[in-house]
Amino acid sequence: MRQSLCFALFSAVLTIIPSSAPAQSVSAAQAARPTAAPAPTPTPTPTPALFQSSRILVETKGQGPDVVLIPGLASTSAVWARTAAALEGRYRVHLVTVRGFGETAPGGNAEGLVSAPVAAEIRRYIEEQGLRHPALIGHSMGGQVALRVAADAGDRIGKVMVVDASPFFPSLISPGSTAADVEPLARIAYQGLMLLGDQALRTQAASMGLELGGAADNVLGGLGWQGGDRRVLAQGLYEVMTTDLRSRLPLIEAPVTVVYGWSPDDRSPRSHVDDLFRAGYRSLPRPAAFERVEGAEHMVMIDRPRQFQAAVDRFLR
Given this model, what pLDDT does residue 163 score? Predict the structure, then answer.
């Protein structure tokens, strides 16, 4: 299915796990059990630029109203390079990288949960740096992180854009599914990544070309899929597949815009996602704005950069 990169990756995991792979390599309890996040490293001086975290890295560019860019699973801030370049002349752009993705050391993300502690660190960053009503833009898993931040931060957040992200990703494939339905599959995906690692998924890119709508090179071989520490990748994928934030949407005070790839071809699953995205966000206090980007797949900002930038500009006005 092309609705979600995470589920395309899950399909690849199922393809590469040998039937003889030891199922006990990672237990369900290990995959799902929440653990306390380690205390963040304290800022050594009051200087805002010296923010330190065991969970995230943040690079700041430009001057103006604050915009925080949050990448998705296995991506670093590099996926936002073109977006940041277009914004930094008018905005102060905060480029987040999750530790353990790409070439970064996993730090505190090496153990326990990933998404919720990362969201807490982004919220801490916003508070300690004195950002005033920042706009959050998050892609895929980063979109879920942005929703967490907005739900927890109340009126401190100005607005939120989620890019090809759902508060519960399985609902884009099976609207009636629950986290309990998906958990056994997510556990297998977790075990597959832990057993075989990121490189095994990369080797499947060619065979996944049809499922990814011809975008496999961009997603798995370019900026979209930058790999990382297998423990952080596996836990991140597990959380994306099982996290259901729909009950937390009523806590979000900021306006939300949902941007997603769309196809006019009835044969494409992308032609049928409008109602699925709308249903996922219906519990927001105020109706979300929806923008579909024709011809884009999961990596909207890479697949259709000009159209995506136009959507960002409308969002930030």
Answer: 98
283 domain residue, yes or no: yes
105 domain-assigned? yes
pLDDT band, very low/low/confident/very high, at 48 (cuts 50, 70, 90):
low
Whether 148 is covered by a domain: the verdict is: yes
Average pLDDT over residues 127-139: 97
CATH number at residue 295: 3.40.50.1820
Taking only the tens place, the pLDDT of each residue in 104-124 is 999 999 999 999 999 999 999
In a domain, 96, yes or no: yes
pLDDT attached to residue 283: 97
Structural domain range at position 191: 5-17+48-316
Provide the mean pLDDT of the chain: 83
Say which residues have a Cβ less than 8 Å from residue 184's Cβ, sequence separation at least 6: none
**Residues 255-269, mean pLDDT to the nearest whole number:** 95
